[in-house]
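Ticket #4471: structure export looks truncated?
Reporter: QA, pipeline team
Priority: medium

Steps to reproduce: submit the single chain below to the structure queue and open the exported record.
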Amino acid sequence: MAQGADWQRQRKLTATPFNEQKSPLVWSEALRQANDMLHYWLSHGPGGSTSTSEDVRTLALDVLAFAGFQKSYPWQSQQTMKDKTASSYRDSLAIILKNVLLILVLPAKLFSMPYMPKQWQQVGWALPAFKKYMLDQIDDEKRSMSEGKAGSGTLVSNLVRASENQQRTVAGQGSQALTPLSVDEILGNIFVFNFAGHDTTAITFTTAIYSLVAYPEVQDWISEEINLYLTDDDSTAWQYEKTFPKLQRCLAVL
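Actual output as written to the record:
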């Protein structure tokens, strides 16, 4: 755990990826995921869906996967994914987040033992797989930097580039500059951002949806705003820079 001067160093270096330039990425992917989720809910007819909280968690995870690694996945309900074998970055991260308390308490090698429950064996697969996905992305980003290519704009890209740029500053200025992030520190921060961002986003949106159901007058209130500013039925035409600042009622609900 980072404390004192080390915490301040990491805070300065990891603040770089969080800026307004990333918001259009998150906006467009969130709209696409939300559209898929909405179509799934509507397909149930008047009976509705009973997997709201789980489905919103999937949406949050998919958006994080895109923002962090620029990996886009089709939205899929948890009800149709329960028996699916984890086979991607998104799947491995989902397994880790679901079992994070077990992972913190038990040694990693325990999850790979053959006599463990299926859920635990999935964790045993997900831990090294997730680390490999992250390391591959870090290596790709460093290679792109060495070739003079522009960054992808993802969380990983910006963390790596902030650290690499700091490395060059350290070489030129000696002790006056901050020590760059190590690979382990980059990995740790990526996981913390995913863990914290996934839970807070999913809980916030789930609570908002349930609250709107309980207070239909608030639904009408924000519907007025949405119908006023989002006149095009095609959500791909909704531009972040022009639309988001106007949605003050929606922000008030959240």
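Status: closed, not a bug. The export was complete when the record was re-opened. Leaving a note from the reviewer for reference: The chain has a mean pLDDT of 82.
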